[in-house]
Specification:
The complex is a heterodimer of chains A (173) and B (423). Chain A is mainly β and 173 residues long. Chain A has one domain: OB fold (Dihydrolipoamide Acetyltransferase, E2P) (Beta Barrel). Chain A is built from three helices and ten strands, in the order E-E-H-E-E-E-E-H-E-E-H-E-E. In chain A, strands 8-7-6-9-10 form a five-stranded antiparallel beta sheet. In chain A, a hairpin with a 5-residue loop joins strand 3 and strand 4. Chain B is an alpha/beta fold. Chain B has a domain of 131 residues: Peroxisomal Thiolase, Chain A, domain 1 (3-Layer(aba) Sandwich). A nine-stranded mixed beta sheet of chain B has the order 3-2-4-7-1-8-11-10-9, sandwiched between helices. A two-stranded antiparallel ribbon of chain B has the order 5-6. The radius of gyration of chain B is 20 Å and the shape is globular. The chains are: A mainly beta (173), B alpha/beta (423). Chains A and B meet through strand 2, strand 6, helix 2, strand 7 and strand 8 of A and helix 4 and strand 5 of B. Strand 6 of chain A pairs antiparallel with strand 5 of chain B.
Chain lengths: 173, 423
């Protein structure tokens, strides 16, 4: 069944041919972050792909991951292009490195997921919240439903983790 | 991080092909004509510049994001019968790659002389990155959920993680990076063709409004309408053309970091494709960055210039901030960069205008402002003050670096035809 829904006023439609993305967003719909793990070399990967970028095998199992990670880099959009995001500026484009599989298979490799900073109920972050987050901030995944069986993964500050005293931020603000 | 790169460009083609013609329309916002007209005018100008006629051309190539007019139409308009043509998808890492392909098809005997062009109404029709009115309300499906679904759509939004991480990894500052715009604006003030000819200061850049951190408005290039073209042929045919040949020493085409468009998954993201491309570019050219007199970087953003110059080895890794702010790349400096003003100031062409500029540099025919002699040639003053000269003294070797995204780059080394250093 095609995934249909709506997110920030934008229509969402993932057709049945796109099995990999359907699987990813349907797992998100159950509020689970699952990534493809290669049955051959056991390495996880992101984004969803047809074959393993490390060994080219096409056999996979969707494995649940912790959904915890660290902000590896970020951008902060002050001039939104899409209508859907104009009322949310400044909004944060995070690149989050998951705790799993850091520096694997090579140094500086990792499972890095891009996404927006939000609150736990899936609302894009306020300007004050945006200012509190930078490289090094510990975050965890949250979900905003976008239909009956899919959700958009978002990132929230992880209150259960020790946070850096001052995460690295672009300066001057 | 270090992986072997299998360099497949045949080294025996070094010095065997040349750029013999260059053509460009004006750089405007509001061309008032079609990409067909822009392409036709640019190709025609390049053929005339070479001292050739349309009948001498039998190959044609172009690239676009489906926002251009294809070569059979342009050739037809000019009465050219083609033995070869190829119109490919792509943008900022194309021109150097297509020069390499042109060399290959001529070498294979498929044709003799190739014109490569890029025609675009990049301001008044299709703005790059899907920006502008169209598409912004479009639905989300599959892969676009990972990009447009999170408001990551334009080039600046796509590249910001790389730029910000470079600041974090190496302490690069906005002040340092702003010098790229400042220097290119100085160069553009000596270029009557440039869309923006006003000189700006570091403060101007830092005070311009924030687009996507760390990019201020003036860290981003201009969007313009223009047609640009170059003519590539064998060195033997080049000798019969109008200008001294500008000889191709080495090319790299769309070289990539691991995992292609998912480059942010692999390695340090503050390292870009030039890290890999340099291992093809310099050995095949037989020279190194220290030998280069003038560079042409892809300055879609101030940061892209810094990242390329650093990863191609013009300075040590991490020292790009010092390099771009040191004055090295200013006219009069040791190795000027983008003497036309580049994409930041002259106009946006997906890389061609920097190749045109360096071709003219190596011909020693770059000036548009210096006094003309009785033979019609400019008498270079080498006074680089505003409105003055922009010829680099004794330029013999140039390097161009194309950028598609952080994970993809192309490059080319060219030599003045009579250079003893080039061969």
């Amino acid at each position: 069944m095609a995934v249909e829904g709506e997110y920030l006023g934008m229509q969402v439609f993932i057709d049945d041919l796109d099995q990999e993305n359907q699987a990813f967003y349907k797992h998100c719909g159950k509020h689970e972050l699952r990534l493809q793990q290669c049955d051959e070399c056991q390495l996880k990967r992101f984004p969803p792909t047809t074959a393993c970028p490390f060994c080219a095998s096409v056999e996979v199992t969707w494995k649940k991951v912790s959904g915890k990670g660290t902000v590896y880099s970020y951008g902060e959009v002050h001039h939104a292009i899409q209508m859907a995001f104009r009322e949310h500026t400044p909004y944060m484009l995070l690149l989050v490195e998951l705790d799993e599989q850091r520096d694997v298979p090579n140094n500086y490799d990792g499972l890095r997921l891009q996404g927006n900073l939000a609150t736990i109920d899936g609302v894009l972050a306020s300007p004050d919240l945006v200012k509190s987050v930078g490289i090094g901030t510990r975050v965890k995944v949250a979900f905003k439903d976008i239909g009956d069986d899919a959700a958009m993964p978002l990132w929230v500050v992880d209150e259960d983790e020790d946070q850096p005293e001052t995460p690295w931020r672009y300066s001057p603000e | 991080m270090d992986r072997d790169v299998d360099s497949t460009t045949p080294k025996h083609l070094r010095g065997k092909y040349a750029i013999v013609g260059i053509g460009e329309t004006s750089y405007t916002r509001g061309s008032g004509c079609t990409t067909r007209a822009l392409g036709t005018r640019a190709v025609s100008a390049a053929i005339t510049d070479a001292g050739l006629t349309p009948a001498d051309v039998d190959g044609m190539m172009s690239y676009s994001f489906n926002d251009s007019t294809q070569s059979p139409t342009i050739a037809g308009d000019l009465g050219i019968r083609l033995n070869f043509h190829m119109d490919v998808y792509g943008g900022g890492s194309s021109i150097e790659a297509l020069v390499g392909i042109a060399m290959g098809v001529i070498e294979a005997g498929m044709c003799k002389t190739v014109v490569i062009y890029r025609a675009m109404n990049g301001f008044s029709q299709v703005r790059i990155g899907g920006t502008g009115g169209r598409g912004t309300r479009a639905g989300l499906s599959g892969d676009s959920l990972f990009t447009r679904g999170i408001g990551m759509m334009s080039a600046g939004q796509m590249f910001c993680h790389t730029f910000m991480r470079h600041m974090y990894d190496y302490g690069t500052t906005s002040e340092q990076v702003a010098h790229v715009k400042v220097i290119h604006s100085e160069h553009a003030s000596n270029n009557p063709k440039a869309f923006y000819q006003n000189r700006v200061s570091v403060e101007d850049v830092l005070r311009s409004r924030m687009i996507v951190k760390p990019l201020h408005l003036l860290d981003c290039c201009v969007e313009t309408d223009n047609g640009t073209a170059i003519v590539v042929t064998s060195i033997d045919r080049a000798k019969d053309c109008k200008h001294i040949p500008v000889v191709i020493q080495s090319v790299v085409g769309r070289c990539m970091k691991p995992r292609a468009d998912m480059h942010y998954q692999s390695g340090p993201i503050s390292t870009v494709a030039g890290h890999y491309a340099k291992d093809i570019l310099w050995p095949n050219a037989g020279v190194g960055p220290q030998d280069i007199d003038v560079t042409g970087s892809y300055d879609a953003f101030t940061f892209t210039t810094l990242l390329q110059l650093e990863d191609y080895g013009f300075c040590a890794k991490g020292e790009g901030g010092d390099y771009v702010s040191s004055g090295v790349m200013r006219l009069g400096g040791a190795r000027p960069n983008n003497t036309s003003g580049g994409h930041l100031c002259e106009g946006y062409t997906h890389g061609v205008n920097m190749v045109i500029e360096n071709t003219r540099q190596l011909r020693h025919d770059i000036d548009d402002s210096c006094p003309q002699g009785a033979d019609g040639k400019r008498r270079h003053t080498f006074d680089y003050a505003e409105g003055g000269c922009r010829q680099v003294k004794d330029a013999e070797l140039s390097a161009n670096m194309g950028w598609g995204h952080p994970g993809m780059g192309s490059a080319m080394v060219m030599a003045r035809g009579d250079s003893a250093r080039g061969v």
